Input
Amino acid sequence: MDDELSKVFAALADPTRRDMVARLAASDATVSQLAEPYDVSIQAVSKHLKVLEDAGLVTRGREAQTRPVHLEAEVFDLMTKWIERYRREAEERYQRLDTLLVEMNDGPEAQRPEDEKRRAKGKAS
Output
């Protein structure tokens, strides 16, 4: 699991870390601020942040006496490109399946243009 994408997905596999990322999307926060809604120690939150930091999702800055945590949104571009690639491929497969199902349900008659269908009906009468 050395590649960057695997680290990102592994970091986001934990619901607490996903929640932290969601909160950091709104604004930077200190470790103490991030720890507030959880019933865990500051050290536990720091461990979660270390995983997010190793995955490149967050960075820690230094402002006076505080060390705000900042979300690195560029990492999401990597995920988005990966997801979009497979979304497009799945969409193409579904479109091919839809076409095949129409052909199977309606038979070859459904594949003819509408004016040919009308002519064929007129000859049959």
